[in-house]
Amino acid sequence: MISDFELAALTLSFKVAIWATLLSLPFAILIGLVMARRSFPGKTFVEVLIHAPLVVPPVVVGYLLLIALAPNSAFGGWLEAVGLSPAFKWQGAALASGLMALPLMIRAIRQAFEAEPKAYREVASTLGAGPWRRFWRISLPLALPGILSATALGFARAVGEFGATITFVANIPGLTQTLPLALYSAAQSPGGEAAAARLALLCLIPALGSLAVSEWLSRRARVKRGLA
Amino acid sequence: MKTVAQVDITWHTGNTTGEACFSLSTGVTALIGPSGAGKTTLARLIAGLETPDTGTITLGGHTVFDSQKHVTEPAQSRGIALVPQESAIFPHMTVYENISFACRIGETELMDLCEKAGIRHLLDNRPHQISGGEARRVAIIRAMASAPKLLILDEPLNGLDPLRRKDMMALIRKLHHTTGQAVVMITHQAEEMLTVADSAVLMDGLRATIHGPLHTVFSHPETARLLQLDDAGELIAAEICDRADGMVACALGEQKLWLTDDGEEMGSKVRLRILGRDVAISRSRVEGISVINQIECCLVHVNRGDRSAALMLVPKGTDLHLTSRITCRSLDALALREGDTVYALVKAVAVKELVVTARNAGGS
Asked: Phi, psi (5° rounding) for residue B342?
């Protein structure tokens, strides 16, 4: 039914996408929060920079990663020396997919933070709650539905990542060959039509599954506070 | 009364500069003024949600803001709880989680406050399941539970129907007596100020400089103008001393002022309001008249206007004041002069009872 080669691609895809999402999430929350709450000089520039991966061809992002982190670069060489080089490893695929997913996640999380009425935080502060307590007890729980859908969106984006991944870590079966890369290979090889069709279907599982889970979670959160 | 806070600040809203200079004492203070006078902004400045341009704010002898010494304590360390008009109940928590969010009092005391506010049965509810009035009470209890040095309520009676207004006014006084916390209540209605407050700060056009005990602020000419009181009347604090025929009497020196019996306990203190237009004047006691209260007074001041005159009267043997508004024609017909002894005729049903405090409770 499903070959070892396809199964390997599926599990690798999950591994890569989960790590990519977990890696991006704290940054997405932090950057989303800062962009929602603070104004600072050069904010527009930062905004453009954050959204760049959405509009720049993914190949360019992979290429930049390659230049910055390949073993023959200064920083990449150092990473190689300490054994942390991501180039041509699944970790590299996770980094590339995470970077591509980040802008989408930041966007959704920022909107969630912006939707929170200021009055809640103000009241909490007059009740004696400092910034940390306000964040953990008020802002974070209120933004949770948004953060969940951002996570699902990021996960789905990471699973589907192709251009940046293939440029940065190449297409090595069992090592960096995620579902879209395997599908690409199958579609390129003669007689690989059936495998390509199966892989295409497999691609839908994590994508639609993550969307369904996030919908369910955010619906539950909304019902709890009487919004739905 | 002890001074709780000193406020002497300036700020700006758009191009206009605001100015506030007053002290707050223990008890309930009404911050009163017409809409747009800057009351909410002033509350936010005091609470630390906004920063004044210049000046100082001290709370319990501790400076929380001083522009010259560059002291600006953040809101969370000031100990000033602000209950906004929209209540701002945290929607992701139950009522109980809301009130225990910043609870610094014991569970028994907290439950006692909930009981008094009538929200004990709501504790497991989610905010969307309770009414606006209930949410407001939850917000007040949540703030009181944080044991603030000063509690600011922004228009707590806005949007409530008349019956609930009355309940809420009584509740604010009751809760204040329970916790002993200093309370500032923002309002634009004289009725609310007169019913709930012990002292008042009058605010208009971003200026809050007239302040003091309720009587003083109430009789200030600005108050009547700003709050558009066509007839300010007088506030009288007295004690229930007699009861007969469905009526109770308050002592005014040796004399008694009768009013309808609402079940007040003997010895309880009441705050009464008598409007000038409800007080008629007679040279001597009148027989065969339905008006029960005929208070012997000394006419101390006559303020003659175009058509009517305001008389200031002091009931014999007291230092209380009554005002009477009569036409100039009556004034001339009776040939009233300052220093005359007259009788103030007050219908019992015209005496408005604002506050009743049981004999053993503190406050006024």
From this structure: -130, 170
